[in-house]
Structures are given as structure tokens and as C-alpha cells.
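thread from #wetlab-drylab

HS: before we spend reagent money on co-crystallization trials with guanosine-5'-diphosphate, can we at least see a predicted complex? here's what I'd submit
DV: go for it
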Amino acid sequence: MVRAIVGANWGDEGKGKITDMLGETSDIIVRFQGGSNAGHTIINKYGKFALHLLPSGVFYDHTTSIIGNGVALNIPYLCKEIQSLVDRGVPKPKILVSDRAQIMMPYHILFDEYEEERLGKKSFGSTKSGIAPFYSDKYAKIGFQVSELFDEELLKEKVERVLEQKNILLEHMYHKPAIDPAELYKTLLEYRDMVAPYVADTALFIHEALKEGKTVLLEGQLGTLKDPDFGIYPMVTSSSTLAAYGAIGAGIPPYEIKDIICVVKAYSSAVGAGEFVSEIFGDEADELRRRGGDGGEFGATTGRPRRMGWFDAVASRYGCRMQGATEVALTVLDVLGYLDELPVCVGYEIDGKVTKDFPVTAQLAKAKPVYEKLPGWKCDIRGIRTYEELPENCRKYIEFIEKEIGVRISMVSNGPKREDIIYR
Ligand code: GDP
């Protein structure tokens, strides 16, 4: 059985915590897209961790963690992250890396930086982890698969061929030093030795596991609104963030994905540039940011302050629909306990007309939020373990959201810890 955990919004919905929780009943946990630009925050008995590349299942000793073929694999980063867990007393996780995953090259990171620098004020707000240049090269067919590290002759020839092009760009477009093929080749041999213990045909491994009745969890990064096709293009990420892509990025048949748990945040937050209809500013935003998440809404990878907003039912319903959500986990609800009333964006006004359907980016830029206000519950709901114990106004907020998004809310998260969860 395959379950997917994916985001409905702009990312940072709290997927890490839900994955960590559901990891308990999973045999295999797979990252299927994105790279080390992700940031999941997990709090468990070993402490507080920010994982960027490893799946959130690495804290269990009964699970195998897989970096699927769809991931942008930063090899030194992977090794550093594994080591940092071991250093803090976490038992060394079982990790497999797809032989078809492609490698984040040092120059991808450089190009990401140089391009943001070149764009200046028009930049994408990239995390500069090399993601966009990486996926560009993958689809331009000049990327390097992990498997290619193991054929020295071909590798050497390919490094020379690819650098011919890269060095022209470096010199003439960005006015930066060229890369020496011999040096890059040496780096790649080091990468090979680092990754070798983990390399496997992971699609086959998952196939065999599914035949044996094992449970697989696909862990998405970011959310629907950052998907290159269905998000707020071009302010999106460079790999698909949708559950459907989980089939490709992990190498399994699409019909195997039986449960799609869409993580929806009880208010909105976003990092980077792009349309954000229910965004709030000033003191109102500062207060929500300060109280938000676990110790404030700041990017797990970059430390940047996140942009804040009220719950956006238009974006979230669309987010769930494009994910194909079979159930919803509503997270960080505890944060909202301080508010007298909670505005919920229930429609977008575009050119004088109100719509509930999430539009394309150009329309989105013109959209003004239409709010409905719900009464607050004015208390701390952390520690509550059953739905009935939640204050009435809190339940009303949940049920209002459920009706707006049209998907059953099966879990409510009321704190950052694994046990801060209410099943409905
Ligand atoms: P992800 O990328 O979707 O995994 O989200 P992040 O981990 O970046 O952001 C979620 C943040 O909210 C982290 O700091 C979590 O520890 C925290 N968090 C997750 N669930 C809850 C919750 O229910 N309540 C509170 N207060 N914090 C939460």
C-alpha cells in the first residue's frame, strides 16, 4: 500500500511532522522530488531536527529511507546530513539512493547564485540550492545520473563535453571563472565513493516490497502552489510537487497510491516571491509570524522570515483538488488561539466578479480577497487529545474549512510534537 503526504499550499504546512508520525506504520519512506531546498522540522525523542534532503522517516529503525529518482541529489549534503544525525545519537538510518537519481553538480549551485545576482530585483527568491539549473539540465539531457559515476571513461568524456557549454556561460554571461574539467572529474569520483554504499535500483526495491505487502510513504516537498504546472508560475519550484508525480519520482505505478494525505495549514505562509492573495502586513503579520509554527515562521533552510496571511480557502481547495487529496491534515491550529476573530478568504474578487476557483497567475495578480470572519476561541488548545474537547469556536473553524475545501479533515495538529495530534 502506498500513501502520499503532500502540501496543499506554498509549503511549510507541517508535512515533516505528519510524515514522522505516519512513519511509525510505514516500512519505506521515499522522497520523490525536490532537493536540499526543502526543510522539514521534526521534534522527537532525539531532539529538534531540520531535515533538508533525507526523508522524515530516518528516526525509525524499522524503516528504509529512499532518495528516489525524481530528487535533486546533493551528495556531500546527503552525507553531511546523515553524519549530523549520527553525531546527535540517532541510530544510523537505512538509506537507499536511486541509481537513476541525478546529481546536483557544484556548478548548479553556482549558476543558481549567479542568475539570482544577475536578475537583481527581479530574482525568484531562490534558496540558491541549485534546483532550477539542476532540473533544467536534467530535461536538457545534460544531467548526470548516479549510475554514470561508475563508468570512469564515459564520465570523463561527459564532464568535458558538458563543461564546454557551461564555461561559455560562466565566462561570457556571468563573467565568472571557468571550471577545470580535471578538477570536476576528481570531485565526481569523490562523490561516487561517498554515495556508493547507498546506491540501489530503488524502483525494483519498492516493487518487491509492495509485492510482499509492505507499506510505503511518499513524502512531498513544498505544496501545490509551487508546482511548475499548477502553481503560481513562474514563482514555483522546478519539480512537480503533486502526489501524481510521486509515482514517477519513486518509480511506482500510479494506481498503487491509495491514500493522499494533503497537509493544509490553518493560516497561510509563504517564502519567496509570488502572488499571495490573503497576505497580511505590518503588526498583524508580525504577530502571526512571531507566534506561528514552532518558535516563529522563518524558513527552515534559509532562515528568511515567511510571508504571512489568513487561511485561503480558494487556494487550499484548489491545492487539495490538484493533489487528489483523500484526506486532510489541518496543522498549526494551536497558533490561532490568540485571535478575537479569524478572517477566512472564501473568494477572490477579480475585475468586479467573485470567484471560488483558483485562477492562472495573471488573473491572480488582480485578485482581491473576500473574507468571512469567524469568532476566535481565545485559549490555548495544545495538549488536547480528542476532538470533542476542543472549544466550540475552534471546532466551528475546522468544520468551516472542511466545508470550504470539500475534503474530510481526518487529523488536526495542535502542536509541533509527534503526539500533538487529534484524530477525527
Ligand atoms: P514542512 O516543510 O511542510 O514539513 O513544514 P516545516 O517543518 O518547514 O514547518 C512547519 C513548522 O511548524 C515547523 O517548525 C514545525 O515544528 C511546526 N509545526 C508543525 N505542526 C505544528 C502544529 O500543529 N503546531 C505548531 N505550533 N507548530 C507546528
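DV: The longest helix spans residues 152-173.
HS: ok that's useful, forwarding to the group
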